[in-house]
């Protein structure tokens, strides 16, 4: 594939995001220069194939991508604008208003600067977690300050498309409010729920299943990075948290009434409906999350199969799904605690589930209904 991005591209901050950008561009033959104050992060990024460490003899970059923590981003962008007077400079920080306000206050040349934010990441940090496909199919928000030059916006749009992302133009404040609700509060909620587990008994933890893993996946994120993100987007995050606190208070009130009753018929009128509404409202919110490829969220039917814990069994199962002519939309694996068996939950289009169940049963698989 030929790319529109004109190199050299200088990546400043060669952690997860920076090294992933470098890897994706280097794969297309773009000349990628690397820069990071951590010599280890720099050498690791080079080792994974993200580009070549920059030095005094490096040619002037046409585009600089700043992928440093949010609290230093504005300083690094300002320094890059000054060091590379011909280059367009973008950053990938998770918060945009804070960075723009600092650059304005510093009197930076905003015509060559375009803020951006790829909505793709992982709960791991550093160049060793980098992958070239990180951005494929993901939105890449471009926040034009109103002062960015047309060519500068186009260069960042090309970057987004060349690494496989989908450019989305947004106003800075609109972006910060959006990520507060879809990314920053979910991170906090995941961390807070997971923190409750510190005091749980081992016996209680042994009962944990996929639901808990789903809710706590983000809890493994880097505390330093997230402190920097949350502090930089404090006002927008706070607005969502206050609404969440009100929801928690409503549920707590209803649970207090349920706890005081001797049975369901005795619970004060409306309290059970309040609890049911909390769950239903969650379902309605989750149903609004677009599907993997940006379309409306599809509802799949899940067929759950017991898989013996032996080499090759999962491959055999997937082969049988294919032989049944059914497309696998998603797959989740769970280990039954203390038993030599796993459970594979196979998501398929609703119209295909019955056929798959018949075919798998005929091939000797045990289904969990
Ligand atoms: N982790 C994620 O999932 C996502 C992160 N982002 C944003 O990307 C940026 C980078 O995050 P990650 O790559 O995850 O972090 P990371 O911790 O993997 O990498 C950050 C890198 O920046 C370097 N750095 C620190 N101070 C610097 C400075 N003054 N100048 C240049 N480099 C400096 C560090 O040495 C490190 O190598 C952050 O602004 C973050 O908000 C955006 C989307 C997703
Ligand atoms: O892992 C996930 O689901 C994420 O949402 C990752 C992520 C983390 C931080 C960002 O600014 C953008 C995306």
Architecture blueprint of SSEs:
Layout: E1 9-12, H1 16-27, E2 32-35, H2 39-47, E3 52-53, E4 63-66, H3 70-83, E5 88-91, H4 97-105, E6 113-118, E7 139-143, H5 150-162, E8 166-169, H6 172-195, H7 202-205, H8 210-216, H9 223-232, H10 234-260, H11 271-287, E9 301-308, H12 313-323, E10 330-335, E11 341-348, H13 353-362, E12 366-368
Parallel strand pairs: 1-2, 1-4, 2-3, 4-5, 5-6, 7-8
Antiparallel strand pairs: 6-7, 9-11, 9-12, 10-11
The structure holds 1,4-dihydronicotinamide adenine dinucleotide and 3-(4-hydroxy-phenyl)pyruvic acid.
3-(4-hydroxy-phenyl)pyruvic acid binds at residues 94, 119-123, 183.
In short:
This protein is an alpha/beta fold and 369 residues long. The chain has 13 helices and twelve strands. It has an eight-stranded mixed sheet, sandwiched between helices. It has a four-stranded antiparallel sheet with strand order 10-11-9-12, with helices on one face.
Please state the CA-atom Rg, rounded to the nearest Å. Answer: 24 Å
**Major sheet size, sense and barrel closure:** 8 strands, mixed
- Hetero ligands: 1,4-dihydronicotinamide adenine dinucleotide, 3-(4-hydroxy-phenyl)pyruvic acid
What's the total helix number? 13
Number of DSSP-assigned strands: 12
Q: What is the succession of H and E elements?
A: EHEHEEHEHEEHEHHHHHHEHEEHE
- The first-level CATH class of the largest domain is given as Alpha Beta
CATH superfamily of the largest domain: NAD(P)-binding Rossmann-like Domain
What shape does the CA trace take?
Answer: globular
Mean pLDDT: 94
Domain Prephenate/arogenate dehydrogenase: 7-291
GO molecular function: prephenate dehydrogenase (NAD+) activity
Catalytic activity: prephenate + NAD(+) = 3-(4-hydroxyphenyl)pyruvate + CO2 + NADH
Family: Belongs to the prephenate/arogenate dehydrogenase family.
